Structure formats: structure tokens, C-alpha cells
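During the reporting period the student researcher (J.K.) took over the structure-prediction task from the postdoctoral fellow and processed the backlog of single-chain submissions. One of the processed entries is reproduced below for the supervisory committee.
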Amino acid sequence: MNPSPLRLLPESASADAGWLVLTRALRALGDGAVSILLVSYLQLLGRNAFEVGAIVTGTLLGSAALTLVVGLAPHGLHPLRLLKAAALLMMATGMGFAVARSFWPLFAIAFIGTLNPSAGDVSVFLPMEQALLAETAKGADRTRIFAWYNVCATLTGAVGALLSALPAMATRSFGFSRLAAERMGFAGYSLLAVAVLAGYLRMSPAAQSSVAADGARAPLAHSRAIVIKLAALFSLDSFGGGFVVQSLLVLWLFRRFNLSPQTTAEVFFAAGLLGGFSQFVSAWLAERIGLINTMVFTHLPANAFLVLAGLMPTAPLAITFLLLRTLLSQMDVPARQSYVMTVVPPQERPAAASVTNVPRSLATALSPLLAGAMLNRSSFGWPLVCAGVLKAVYDVLLLVQFSAVKPHPHSE
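J.K. obtained the following C-alpha cells:
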């Protein structure tokens, strides 16, 4: 087996866990940069706020469709092969955005490709990586592995957000045109895809054996009811979250407070650091109060801070509440991912990951268009208020419906 690139993971984790954490971190680096570059790039190309929202919606709808096809296909399709193909698609996506100019080609590339407009991951990579990652550790170590998976991604996503200021700096320092400099950012996204592919190539073929071994069964033969309920609730949360995907928060800060690209990059870098390190606390909390309680009791106050950010009259106050929200809002992520993998049998994990992520992507895809329309008419923080209220309703429903549900007997 290849040595793991990360030695800080739990002792029970296999070497493949390290490669999955590394590839997720590399993808997040690209996502963090292009999710911020996307708004200024599209505006430089003459796109208005509604068209920006439409392109963001296209990225999410396309990811959802592709994820559903992959997740519900017979699992003899080999997760590692699918991930390698997705890395090639990521490469093509970056190059497509670097050369396209008009709205419809950009929309088509957004729909077909892997571009992620959010700090979180809603791409086709996610369900396959999660299913493989769940097999690399057992018991409590599984939540710790998911925490590392998300922490490393959040931190590199924060670095990517900071790097998004490089085109503006290159324009001032070296005389590049702003448009050419930002095109280079999308070319860099394609180069990261090469590194992601290299990571998948280093993984052991044994990584996919347990999740691909039972392909003859129906994808959700035993856990259909619980997965559908979870998917419905996660969809409500994601519909709310779609109002505040990172690209639209950037657009709101531009329009509401006229923040510079450099200041915006610094804000999202700080947000990424806070959100990343807080996820280590998630694994610690989950061991003591349970996965569902960890998800709910960290998420509710985060949503209150989001509403308050939307109501603030000045940039420093709005940014303060956005950072407070970020400090808590990501702590539910490793707990949620671990919970889904815990309540279904191992052979149904790829389908469960897809079925819970696809409705999330679809629901997230509906709201950016609405948020773009809101911001086209007013710079007030209506998208943030809508997001906070909808996500708080999700928290309450999740606690009521799932606080007593036990792990699947074969999940360990």
C-alpha cells in the first residue's frame, strides 16, 4: 500500500484516507479561489447580477444531475475510476471558463463542469470520496477522519480565497489587463485538477472493494426510508444555504459596502481559518453529546449570526457577524457526513451519499437565482435573512425527527 501523505490522521486510518484528504484539500484550494474570482470575472465580461445568479445556478444543477447518475448507477462502476474521470472534467472546466466570453457558453460550461461557487463542496466528487473515506476508519475515528477531511479543505479553501486577490495585484504591479489576469486564475484551476488526478492514481485499488462489492443489489435496499427523510431535511438546509453561497456573499459585499477585491479575499481567508479549525471541536463534541446534537446546537446560533449580518448597516459590523457565523456554521459538516455513513450498511454508502447530496445540490441551485434577483433590485441583506431563517427551521426539524435514531448494526 502507498504511504499516506498525512501522518496526523487517527492510527486506525488506512493510507488511502490521507490521499482522499489531500485531493479534497487541493480541490478546495481551487474552489476557494474561483468562487471569488467568478463574480468579478463575470462582471468584467459584462454579466449583470441576474446572469451571475443564473450561472451559479447552472453549476449547481449540473453537479446535482451528474452526482445522481453516478450515485445510483451499479457500483461495479468503480469509485476510483469515476473520480479520475471527474478530475479530467475539472481540468476541462477551468480551461473552458478561461476562453469563453458570452453568457450561454459560460452557462453550458458551468452546467456540465465541476466549478463550485461555494466554500463547501457540492460536486460529483463528494459522494464517491465520502463513501471511500468511510471505509478507511471505524467507530469514533470515522468522525475524526471526516473532521480532517473537512478541516484541510476549509483551510486550503481559505488560502484559495486569499489567492483570489493575485489577479488584482498582478494588474497593479505588472500591468496585466484585469481580464487576462483573472483568466490565468481559471487556468490555475485546471492545473490543480492534474494534481488531484495524481492523488487518485496513488490510491490502493483495495480502497474501493467494499463499496463496490455489492453492486448487484438495489442501491438503497435497506435504508431507503431514512435516507429519503435525511435528504428532504438536508434539502431545506441547502435551499437556505443557496442564498449565501460564497460567490453571492462576495457580490453582496461588493454591492452593499463597495469592498475591494483584496479586502474581500482577506475576509474569506479569515472565515476559512475560523471554519476550518472549529471542525476539530465537532469530533470532540460528537463523542460527548452525539452526532445529531452536535449538528443542531452549533448550527442554530450560526444562523442567528447570519441574519444579524444581513441587518447590519456598516461593513465592519456585517463582517463581524459573518465571521461569528463561520466560527460555528461548519461544525455540523463532519458530524452530518459521519451520521449518514453510520445509519446505513456499508454497501449502501455510495448511494446514500449521492441521494443525500443530490437534493442538497438541487435545492442549493434554486436559491442563487432568487438571491441574484434580490441583489439586482436592492443591496440590502435579504438573501442572508432568508438563509438564516430557513436553516434554523431545518435545525429544529432535524432534532425532532432524528435525535432518537440509532446507528445501523453493521455500520461499525
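The committee noted the following: Residues 15-402 form a domain with the Growth Hormone; Chain: A; fold (CATH 1.20.1250.20).
J.K. will present the remaining backlog at the next meeting.
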